[in-house]
Design brief:
Layout: E1 6-8, E2 11-13, E3 18-19, E4 23-24, E5 29-31, E6 34-37, E7 41-44, H1 52-63, E8 70-72, H2 78-81, H3 84-90, E9 95-98, H4 100-105, E10 116-118, E11 124-126, E12 131-136, E13 146-150, E14 155-157, H5 175-187, H6 191-201, E15 208-210, E16 217-218, H7 219-234, E17 239-247, H8 252-266, E18 271-275, H9 281-290, E19 291-301, E20 304-305, H10 307-318, E21 322-331, H11 338-346, E22 350-361, H12 370-380
Parallel strand pairs: 7-8, 8-9, 9-10, 14-15, 17-18, 17-19, 19-21, 21-22
Antiparallel strand pairs: 1-6, 2-5, 3-4, 6-7, 11-12, 12-13, 13-14, 15-16, 19-20
Length: about 375
């Protein structure tokens, strides 16, 4: 977005390997920032410290010797607040505008801000020809978050909502895949707060959504993004299908998982398969939420479950996985425990239905085990 009144001054971080030190980002990441040029000039968020110097240079060019009066803080996470101190060293007279919690967080991050202005949802800031209307968005995905609507331009600055992994122009024809992986791993725990802010924004005339990560959304792409966020925030499945997730030590549980996947496909099901030991865990979490059903196939390990499965289930618990039908396949050479432990972890989640029969394999998949896989597939696909 580059207009006379709203200028994009964000930065790509193409060399970043892990976002938040845990999410693989093969196409890097971008940190979006915007300059609002009206009677009074405002900057919308800063960027990660990795890109401070580049961002300050872009800001100076966009300002063209003018001085910003306001820095709007929508989100205090360091990839957006990490250049505030550097900004103040160059523009010490600027006023920092944020929620009460955001301003309270400033000293926690070592930021000394002499001029601040507290705002809350429903408040407005007149820039002279441009109005900033603030929308409280607590727990999307931090408690201090504000979104900002500019009615004159019909733009919603959406903070971390509607973001995606990747540099700004990555996958321009496929927003959904990396936006979904981003949503369920960053915001997935907070479906209700996301739904609340979608409801609050539904009465606004929005033609553009400008997030803090990923591309600016307009037209049909924006409409599709809103449709998907409505589904995702409700915890309803996006796709009628099955995720087969397996954690296999020597490959025998893997063979059972792949056999079950073929049985499910033969029955007409759409199936995704993930190796929890090798595949991207964030993508596995994404697929668990995307699909309407799931089967967990796991080896017993140290009288417990193989650690990659434990990690996966723990992440699903953190992200409030719910309202799904789940089948279980365990493997053990002398004392199978995996099904019992997986069941106990699933029972801590909301509205999870364990589908019978639970399939128990001893060491390797045998022809006599196939009927049990067939029965599990049949029952899993029933409504």
């Amino acid at each position: 977005m580059n207009t006379e009144v709203i200028k994009y001054i964000g930065c790509d971080d193409a060399d970043l390997d892990l976002f938040e030190s845990q999410y693989i980002v093969p196409e890097g990441m971008c940190y979006n920032s915007y300059l609002l040029c009206a009677g009074h000039i405002a900057v919308m968020d800063t960027v990660d410290p990795r890109k401070t110097e580049e961002w300050l240079s872009k800001l100076a060019v966009a300002l063209d010797s003018k001085q910003p009066e306001y820095l709007i803080i929508q989100h205090m996470e360091p990839d957006h607040s990490g250049s505030i101190s550097a900004f103040l060293s160059v523009y010490p007279n600027a006023t920092l505008v944020g929620s009460k919690i955001a301003l309270q967080m400033l000293p926690q991050f070592g930021i000394n801000a002499p001029n601040t202005k507290e705002v809350k949802g429903g408040d407005m800031l007149d820039l002279g020809g441009m109005t900033l209307s603030f929308i409280a968005a607590p727990m999307v995905h931090w408690p201090e978050v504000l979104m900002t609507y500019v009615p004159e331009q019909k733009v919603l600055f959406s903070a971390d909502a509607f973001g995606k992994f990747g540099v700004y122009d990555a996958d321009t024809d496929d927003w959904t895949c990396e936006a979904r992986r981003y949503y369920f791993n960053i915001c997935g725990k907070y479906g209700r707060p996301v739904a609340n802010v979608l409801k609050a924004a539904s009465s606004l005339d929005i033609q553009t959504i400008a997030p803090l990560h990923g591309p600016i959304l307009e037209g049909e792409k924006m409409q599709e993004a809103v449709r998907l966020y409505t589904i995702w925030s409700s915890y309803e499945p996006e796709t009628d299908g099955v995720l087969v997730a397996y954690a296999s030590i020597h490959g025998n549980t893997r063979k059972a998982a792949l056999q079950l996947a073929e049985v499910l496909r033969a029955k007409g099901a759409k199936v995704a398969v993930t190796d929890l030991s090798r595949d991207d865990m964030a993508e596995a979490v994404e697929d668990a939420f995307r699909m309407s059903r799931m089967v967990l196939c796991c080896s017993t390990y140290d009288a417990d479950i193989f650690p990659p499965m434990h990690n996966f289930l723990h992440k699903l618990q953190l992200k409030t996985y719910q309202s799904r039908r789940v089948g279980l396949v365990e493997n053990g050479s002398w004392a199978p425990q995996a099904a019992r432990i997986m069941r106990s972890m699933l029972e801590q989640m909301k509205d999870i239905t364990i589908v019978e029969p639970v399939v128990s394999i001893r060491s390797t998949l045998k022809p006599t085990d196939v009927p049990a896989l067939e029965a599990l597939a049949e029952h899993l696909l029933q409504d």
